[in-house]
Protein backbone atom coordinates (compact mmCIF):
# COMPACT_ATOMS: atom_id res chain seq x y z
CA UNK A 1 0.00 0.00 0.00
CA UNK A 2 1.28 3.44 -0.91
CA UNK A 3 1.77 5.97 1.85
CA UNK A 4 -0.48 9.04 1.54
CA UNK A 5 1.19 11.91 -0.27
CA UNK A 6 3.98 9.76 -1.71
CA UNK A 7 4.04 9.75 -5.52
CA UNK A 8 5.98 7.54 -7.86
CA UNK A 9 8.07 9.44 -10.40
CA UNK A 10 6.60 9.52 -13.90
CA UNK A 11 8.84 7.55 -16.27
CA UNK A 12 10.21 9.55 -19.22
CA UNK A 13 8.99 8.84 -22.75
CA UNK A 14 11.77 7.94 -25.18
CA UNK A 15 12.04 9.19 -28.75
CA UNK A 16 10.78 5.77 -29.88
CA UNK A 17 7.55 6.29 -27.93
CA UNK A 18 8.24 3.74 -25.23
CA UNK A 19 8.22 4.49 -21.54
CA UNK A 20 11.57 4.47 -19.81
CA UNK A 21 11.75 3.35 -16.24
CA UNK A 22 13.21 5.60 -13.59
CA UNK A 23 16.34 3.40 -13.50
CA UNK A 24 17.10 4.14 -17.19
CA UNK A 25 15.91 0.86 -18.71
CA UNK A 26 13.06 1.00 -21.22
CA UNK A 27 9.85 -0.95 -21.43
CA UNK A 28 7.07 -0.92 -24.04
CA UNK A 29 4.40 1.71 -23.54
CA UNK A 30 1.20 0.24 -22.10
CA UNK A 31 -1.98 0.39 -24.15
CA UNK A 32 -3.71 2.84 -21.86
CA UNK A 33 -7.19 4.20 -22.59
CA UNK A 34 -5.97 7.69 -23.51
CA UNK A 35 -3.41 6.20 -25.92
CA UNK A 36 -6.15 4.11 -27.56
CA UNK A 37 -8.35 7.19 -28.02
CA UNK A 38 -5.43 9.24 -29.38
CA UNK A 39 -4.52 6.42 -31.79
CA UNK A 40 -8.10 6.18 -33.06
CA UNK A 41 -8.37 9.95 -33.57
CA UNK A 42 -4.93 10.04 -35.21
CA UNK A 43 -6.06 7.31 -37.62
CA UNK A 44 -9.27 9.22 -38.43
CA UNK A 45 -7.18 12.27 -39.29
CA UNK A 46 -4.68 10.24 -41.34
CA UNK A 47 -7.35 8.52 -43.44
CA UNK A 48 -9.24 11.76 -44.09
CA UNK A 49 -12.33 10.95 -42.02
CA UNK A 50 -11.46 14.13 -40.11
CA UNK A 51 -9.94 16.99 -42.14
CA UNK A 52 -8.58 20.46 -41.37
CA UNK A 53 -11.11 22.48 -39.40
CA UNK A 54 -13.34 19.50 -38.56
CA UNK A 55 -14.30 19.38 -34.88
CA UNK A 56 -13.18 16.39 -32.87
CA UNK A 57 -15.85 14.50 -30.96
CA UNK A 58 -16.69 16.27 -27.71
CA UNK A 59 -15.12 15.11 -24.47
CA UNK A 60 -18.55 13.80 -23.41
CA UNK A 61 -18.84 11.81 -26.66
CA UNK A 62 -15.36 10.33 -26.20
CA UNK A 63 -16.13 9.59 -22.56
CA UNK A 64 -19.29 7.69 -23.46
CA UNK A 65 -17.83 5.95 -26.53
CA UNK A 66 -14.74 4.67 -24.73
CA UNK A 67 -16.26 4.32 -21.24
CA UNK A 68 -13.57 6.51 -19.66
CA UNK A 69 -13.42 9.51 -17.35
CA UNK A 70 -13.48 13.01 -18.81
CA UNK A 71 -9.85 13.49 -17.70
CA UNK A 72 -8.79 10.49 -19.78
CA UNK A 73 -10.51 11.87 -22.87
CA UNK A 74 -8.93 15.29 -22.21
CA UNK A 75 -5.51 13.64 -21.97
CA UNK A 76 -5.95 12.02 -25.40
CA UNK A 77 -6.83 15.38 -26.96
CA UNK A 78 -3.87 17.00 -25.17
CA UNK A 79 -1.54 14.41 -26.75
CA UNK A 80 -2.84 15.26 -30.22
CA UNK A 81 -2.54 18.97 -29.45
CA UNK A 82 1.09 18.50 -28.38
CA UNK A 83 1.73 16.65 -31.65
CA UNK A 84 0.25 19.58 -33.56
CA UNK A 85 -2.58 17.50 -35.03
CA UNK A 86 -5.37 19.43 -33.33
CA UNK A 87 -5.92 22.99 -32.22
CA UNK A 88 -7.72 23.48 -28.94
CA UNK A 89 -8.17 26.27 -26.47
CA UNK A 90 -9.94 26.42 -23.14
CA UNK A 91 -13.69 26.55 -23.59
CA UNK A 92 -13.52 25.85 -27.33
CA UNK A 93 -14.06 22.58 -29.10
CA UNK A 94 -10.87 20.98 -30.47
CA UNK A 95 -10.55 20.97 -34.27
CA UNK A 96 -8.16 19.28 -36.69
CA UNK A 97 -5.20 21.59 -37.25
CA UNK A 98 -3.84 22.73 -40.59
CA UNK A 99 -1.15 20.14 -41.50
CA UNK A 100 0.91 22.64 -43.52
CA UNK A 101 2.57 23.97 -40.36
CA UNK A 102 3.90 20.46 -39.66
CA UNK A 103 5.76 20.43 -42.98
CA UNK A 104 7.39 23.78 -42.10
CA UNK A 105 8.84 22.30 -38.89
CA UNK A 106 10.98 19.79 -40.79
CA UNK A 107 13.22 17.87 -38.44
CA UNK A 108 13.24 20.55 -35.77
CA UNK A 109 11.11 18.33 -33.53
CA UNK A 110 7.89 19.02 -31.66
CA UNK A 111 6.67 22.50 -30.98
CA UNK A 112 7.55 24.05 -27.66
CA UNK A 113 4.68 24.02 -25.22
CA UNK A 114 3.91 26.73 -22.74
CA UNK A 115 4.61 30.43 -22.78
CA UNK A 116 7.33 31.83 -25.00
CA UNK A 117 10.53 32.83 -23.24
CA UNK A 118 11.96 36.34 -22.99
Automatic annotation (TrEMBL):
Residues 1-33, 91-118 are annotated as: Disordered. SUPFAM superfamilies: Winged helix' DNA-binding domain. Signal peptide: none annotated. Residues 31-99 form the HTH gntR-type domain. Pfam families: GntR. Keywords: DNA-binding, Transcription, Transcription regulation. Residues 15-25 have a biased composition (Polar residues). This is HTH gntR-type domain-containing protein. It comes from Pseudonocardia adelaidensis.
Amino acid sequence: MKAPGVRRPIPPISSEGSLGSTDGSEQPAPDSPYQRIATDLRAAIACGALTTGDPLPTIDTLRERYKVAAGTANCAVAVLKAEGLVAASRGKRAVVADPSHLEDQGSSGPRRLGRPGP
